[in-house]
Amino acid sequence: MAATALACLVTAAPAAAQPRVAIAPGRLGEAVIALAAQTGTDIGLRDQRLASLRVRGVTGEMSAEQALAQMLRDAPAQAVRVGANMWVVVPMRPSARAKPRGAPRPQFASQRPQPAPEPVPETSDPVDIVVTATKRQIRFGNLSGLATVVGGDDFSPVPDGANGNAIASRAASVTSTHFGAGRNKLFIRGIADSAFSGPTQSTVGQYLGEARTSYSAPDPDLRLHDLKAIEILEGPQGTIFGAGSLGGIVKAVPAEPEFDRLGGRMIATATFTTGGSPGGEAVLIGNIPLIADTAALRANVYRAREGGYIDDISRNRTDLNRSDIVGGRAILAAKLGGGWTGEAMGAVQSIDTRDAQYADRRMPGLGRRNPFDQPFAQRFVLGNATLKGPVGALNFTGTFGALSNRTREVFDASTLFEQEAPYRQGNTTSLLAGEARLDYSGSDGWSTLAGVSFLRNRSVGDREVLVKNLGQYSASVQSNVTEWTLFAEASKRLTTRLTATLGGRVSAIHLYGYRHDLVSTEDVISDIAESARTERVAAPSAALLYAIRPDLQAFVRYQQGYRPGGISIEFGRITKFSNDRLATFELGLRFGKRQRSVVSGQMSLSVSRWSDIQADVADNIGLPITLNIGNGKITTASAAIAFAPTPRFGLEAGLVYNRSRLDEPSERLVTFSHAIANEVTQGRATLPNVTDFSARVAARFSGDFGGRWSWDLNGAIRYIGLSRLGLGVRFNKNQGGYTQTNLVGRLHHDDLTLFVAINNLLDDKASRFGVGNPFDLDLALQYVPQRPRSVSVGVDLAF
C-alpha cells in the first residue's frame, strides 16, 4: 500500500509542477512572447513572417511544449525543441500538414518526401534579429556598431507614405530633405553635405536586397511594399560597402518567394487631406509556386496618388503639387540543387508631380504666385541577379545588377530675369554593379568575409534656361566612374566575452567626363584629357565587442568611408572636385534583447573628421555647382530605448544630438562666399542640413475583442531640430524645428485588416525644409510645409 501511494505521489509530482498558462487567441508573435514569460522558457520564430499568424488561445496548467502544441494545432507551423528550455517555431512543410479526408490535393505541393525541419544549434538565440546588411548574417547582439531594424509590416499601411519619408519617421538617426517624391536626399547620423542634388555621390548607400538603388542621384523613393524589413546601419560603412556609405546604409529586404504557397494580398487606401485634394493607393501582391518546391515567383504592382495641397493664387489654381506614382517589383527564385539558389529581381517606377510643393509666407493659406507650373518626372528601372551556395565550409554570394534613373524638373527663374524664364534640369544615371564574395561563420570563433566588386556609373546632367530677348543658356556634362575593389573583414572571438574585428578595402577608381553638348571631337578629347584621373583609396576598419553579460555589450570601433571625385560644370566650363573622406571613432553600449527583454536599447558617442567635403551648392543666382568646401568635424550622441512590459503594450524612444563645424574652409569656398571666413572665425560655420537635435517617441497597444477579432493602435511623435539650408549668403537660413505626429489603428479578423491612419495629427504647418525653388531671390519667404492633417482609410486582405 505504501509503495503504491509513493508511486502515485511520484507520478503526480510533475503535473503539480506545471505552470499556469493563460494565452488569449491572437497573433503568434504576441502569443509566444506571453507564453515564454509565463513558463520561464525561450521561444522564438525562425521566420518573422510567422508573427502575424492567428493561433488558438490556451488556458490551464501545462508545459510550454503542451501549450505550443495546442496553440499551433490549426496553424501552418510547428515548434521544434532546440535546448533544455528553448523552442523555435518553424513553418510546417506542406506534406506535414493535416489534410481533411477527401480534400483536393494542393496544386503546388511537393509530392516528394520532406526532410525533418533543420535543427537549430543550442547556442543560437532564436529570437535575436539577424542583420543581413552586414553581408555576414550577423545577429543584432553581435554587431560592433549601431543598427535599426524595422519590420516590413510597419510600412503597410503608413500614414506618411510608403517611401523614404516613412523610413525617416521611424528612426531618429535618419533625416531627409523635402523637395518631393523622387527628389530627396537621405542622411544618417548628421552626415549631410547639402540640400541640392548634383553630380556628387550620396552620403547614404541605398539597397533593395542585394541591388544598389542609387549612386549620383536622389533617393528613388521606391514604394516600401511587401518587405521583410528595413535595416539601417549607421556609418561610415566604407569597408564593406565602399563609396557612398559615409553616413551609413539603408537596406530594404524584400519578402522572399515561397515555394509551397499560392496566395496574395490586396491593399486599397483612400486619403483625405485638410484643404487639399484626395489621394489613395492600390496594391496587389502575389506569390505563385511555379515548380513544386523548386521555383516560385513573387510580385507586386501599385498605383498611388498623393493629393496636392499647394495653391497658385495668381492663376487661381488649387492643389497643384499632386503626384502620381506607378510601379512594381518581381522576384523569381529557384532552388538549383546542392544547396545552391538563384534569384532574379526587377523593379520599375514612374513619378509624375504636377508642380513644386513650396509656399510663400506672404500668401494666404498654403499658396504662392508663379506664371507656370514647375513639374517633376522620374523613370526608374532596376534589374538584378543573385547566386548563392556552399563552397566547402564557405558560403558564396554573387550578384550583378543594372539600373537607370532618369529625372526631369522645371524651376521658375522669372524673378531672376524679371520676365518669364523656365529653368529645365535633368539627370540620367546608368549604373552597372557586380560583386562576388565568400563568407564563413564557424564554431571555432571565426567569422570572415572577403570579396571583389566592380562598379561603372555614367551620369549625364543637363540644364537650360530660355529667356525672351536674351536667348537660351544650356549646358550638359557627362561624368563616368569605374571602380574595382578588393575587400575583407574578419572577426575572432578572443575570449568567451571579447571579439575583435579587422577589415579593409582597397579601390582603384578611374574618372573622366566631358561637356555632353560639344560638337567638336577635338573639344571632347580635350575635356576627357583634362578631367581623366585615377584615384586609389583604402578604407580600414577595426572594432572590439565586449560582452559584459549576455544581455549587455560594449563596443568601440574605428572606420573610414569615402566618395570618389568627379567633374561638374561651372559657367560653361569643366571643373573638377576631389574625393572626400570620413573617419569615425565610436564608443557604444547595447543592453537587453529585442523582442524578449522588458527593457532594451543602445547608445553611442562618435566623433567624425570629414576631409575635403564634397557639397552640391547653388551659386548666387541659383545654378547648381559642386565644390570641395573644406574640412569639418561632427560630434554625435545618440540613444534608443524600448520598453515592453507586456506583449500588448510597448514604448520606444530615440534621440540624436549633433554638433557640426566647418573649421577649415577651402579657398574655393571662401572665394565663392566671403562670409564663410567670418563664420569660421566666430565658430558659427555649421555644415548644411545637419540637424542639431532630433527625437522620436512611439507607443503601441494591442488587444482582442474575443473570438477571432483583434486590434492594435500605434502612435508616434517626432521632433526634427534646426539645421542650416546651405552655404553662401543667400542660403544662410535655418530650416526645421518642427514636430511630426501620426497615429495608426488596425482591426484584424483572420486574413482581413481594416485600418485608419492619421498623419500630422496636430495639423502643424511649420516649415520642414527651407527651399522649394533655388532661383527665388528672396528665399526667406519660401518654405516647404508639412502635408496638412490627412486621414487614410483602407482595407488589407490576404488570400
Q: How many β-strand stretches?
A: 48
Mean pLDDT: 83
Structural class: mainly beta
Compute the number of helices: 9
**Principal-axes shape call:** globular
Biggest sheet, open or closed, and with what strands and sense? 22 strands, antiparallel, barrel
Low-confidence stretches: 1-16, 94-127
Helical fraction equals under 10%
Fraction of residues in β-strands: over 45%
List the helices and strands and how they pair.
Blueprint: H1 2-16, E1 20-23, E2 26-27, H2 28-39, E3 42-45, E4 54-55, E5 58-61, H3 64-71, E6 77-83, E7 86-91, E8 130-131, E9 138-139, E10 147-151, H4 164-169, E11 174-176, E12 186-188, E13 204-208, E14 211-212, E15 227-234, H5 238-241, E16 248-254, E17 263-273, E18 279-291, E19 295-306, E20 311-312, E21 323-337, E22 340-353, E23 359-360, E24 367-368, E25 376-391, E26 394-412, H6 414-417, E27 422-441, E28 446-467, E29 471-493, E30 498-515, H7 521-531, E31 533-538, E32 541-549, E33 552-563, E34 566-570, E35 573-577, E36 580-591, E37 599-611, E38 614-618, E39 624-628, E40 630-646, E41 649-665, H8 667-672, H9 675-682, E42 693-706, E43 709-724, E44 734-749, E45 752-759, E46 767-769, E47 782-785, E48 790-798
Parallel strand pairs: 3-7, 13-16, 20-24
Antiparallel strand pairs: 1-5, 2-4, 6-7, 8-9, 10-15, 11-12, 13-14, 15-16, 17-18, 17-48, 18-19, 19-21, 21-22, 22-25, 23-47, 25-26, 26-27, 27-28, 28-29, 29-30, 30-31, 30-32, 32-33, 33-36, 34-35, 36-37, 37-40, 38-39, 40-41, 41-42, 42-43, 43-44, 44-45, 45-48, 46-47
